[in-house]
C-alpha cells in the first residue's frame, strides 16, 4: 500500500470533506498522443486535440471515484509554441472548447479550477476565460482541477526564483529564510498538496518539463494508450499500479518488504 507523506505545504490544503470520501490523491496527467491518434485515423491533428478534450471530460468525471482529489493536467507547454501556427491556435482554443460546455457542471459539482503557468503570452480573451473559470469555482472544494497552460517546469522555477530575488532586493525577504517550503510557496503550484503520481499515456517515457520541482517523490506510471482513448479504466489501471508501489521518500526498505521479497 502506498503510504502518504505530508509536508508543511499541506497546511494550506483543505481537509477532505465527507462527500469526497477518502479521495486524497494528487495525480498529474500528461495528455499526450492526440496527434498520433488522429494520424492513425487519417484525420488532421486538430481533431485529435478535440478528441483529447473528450478524454479530459471523462477523466475529470472518473477521478474522484478512484480516490483522486487533485488532478493537474498538462494542456499547453512553454515549448508547444514551436508547433505550426495553426496547431498552436487550435490548442489555444481548447480551454474555451472545454469550459463552454463544462464550466457550469464543474461549478455545480464542487470542482475548483486553477490555471497554472504564465499568463504573459496568452491572448487577453484566454486569460479572461481562465480567470472566469477560477473566479466562478473559487468557493468549491470537493475536487481540484489544475490546468497547466503556457506552463513549463523550468520556467516556473525561474519565475519563482525571480519573485524571491525581487522580494529580497526590496527588503521584504531574508535570504536565510529561503528553504524548500518557501521556494515551493513561490511556484505557480503553491498550496497544492504533494504530488503522488504522474501519469503519461502515449508510450513516451519522459516528463517533458512538467512539474519538475513537484515530481521529487511522485511515482511515475507510463501507459501505452493515446490520450484521446483514455477513460476511467485507464486511470483505474494507473492508480492500481501506483498503489502497488512502496513509497519510501528516501527512507529505508521496511522489514515487511524484505520478508516479502
Ligand atoms: C498532446 O498530444 C497535446 C499537446 C501537446 C498539447 P500531441 O499533439 O503531443 O500528440 P502526439 O505526441 O504528436 O501524438
Ligand atoms: Mg506529444
UniProtKB/TrEMBL annotation:
EC numbers on record: 2.5.1.-
Highest taxon of source: Bacteria
This protein's name: Isoprenyl transferase
Family statement drawn from the similarity comment of this UniProt entry: Belongs to the UPP synthase family.
Chain coiled-coil ranges: none
Reported cofactor(s): Mg(2+)
Gene this protein is translated from: uppS
Active site: 32, 80
GO BP, one annotated term: polyprenol biosynthetic process
Alphabetized UniProt keyword annotations: Magnesium, Metal-binding, Transferase
Cofactor note: Binds 2 magnesium ions per subunit.
Single annotated GO MF: magnesium ion binding
Role: Catalyzes the condensation of isopentenyl diphosphate (IPP) with allylic pyrophosphates generating different type of terpenoids.
Keyword Transferase found: yes
GO terms for cellular component: cytosol
Subunit structure: Homodimer.
Binding site for substrate: 33-37, 45, 49, 77-79, 81, 83, 200, 206-208
Stretches the record annotates as Disordered: 1-20
Positions bound to Mg(2+): 32, 219
Protein source organism: Phenylobacterium parvum
A family per Pfam: Prenyltransf
Keyword Metal-binding among UniProt keywords: yes
